[in-house]
């Protein structure tokens, strides 16, 4: 059984930064490909970023240049460093692995 737990969300002013974490646990977890998604109430879940075991990264155009995805293989933790946050980044952020597991989400609110 694999469990993904996100943390690091909160309230931040426009232009601010946050660092999200996604901790993976369970003997069945194997890192090959992981993603961050986000969802605004009433809208479809939106893909944000992807990282592979080879270190390849990819980002949605809306966050490119502002967000950085990374992973600590030893700690089985994935990160999303978010800078220059905008009000439209307000959402619940989820991590998702290649086996189809999802975390419970962490709320990010960007507001003055």
Distance between the termini: 40 Å
Estimated helix fraction: under 10%
Q: Can you write the helix and strand succession as a string?
A: EEEEEEEEEE
Tell me the number of helical segments per DSSP (H or I, 4 or more residues long).
0
Produce the secondary structure layout.
Elements: E1 3-7, E2 10-12, E3 18-25, E4 33-39, E5 46-52, E6 57-59, E7 67-72, E8 77-82, E9 91-97, E10 106-110
Characterize the structure shown.
This protein is mainly beta and 112 residues long. A six-stranded mixed sheet has the order 2-10-9-4-5-6, with no helix packed on it. The chain has a four-stranded antiparallel sheet with strand order 1-3-8-7, with no helix packed on it. 0% of the residues lie in helices and 51% in strands. The model has no long low-confidence stretch (mean pLDDT 94).
Structure summarized in a few sentences:
The chain is mainly β and 112 residues long. It has strands at 3-7, 10-12, 18-25, 33-39, 46-52, 57-59, 67-72, 77-82, 91-97, 106-110.
List the main descriptive attributes of the protein structure presented here.
four-stranded antiparallel sheet, mainly beta, 10 strands, six-stranded mixed sheet
């Amino acid at each position: 059984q694999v469990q993904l737990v996100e943390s690091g969300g909160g309230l931040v002013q426009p232009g601010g930064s946050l660092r999200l974490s996604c901790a993976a646990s369970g003997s069945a977890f194997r890192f090959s490909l992981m993603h961050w998604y986000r969802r605004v109430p009433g809208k479809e879940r939106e893909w944000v970023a992807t990282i592979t075991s080879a270190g390849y990264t990819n980002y949605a155009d809306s966050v490119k240049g502002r967000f950085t995805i990374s992973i600590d293989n030893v700690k089985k933790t994935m990160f999303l460093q978010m800078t220059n946050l905008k009000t439209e980044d307000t959402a619940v952020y989820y991590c998702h692995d290649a086996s189809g597991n999802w975390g419970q989400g962490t709320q990010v609110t960007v507001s003055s």
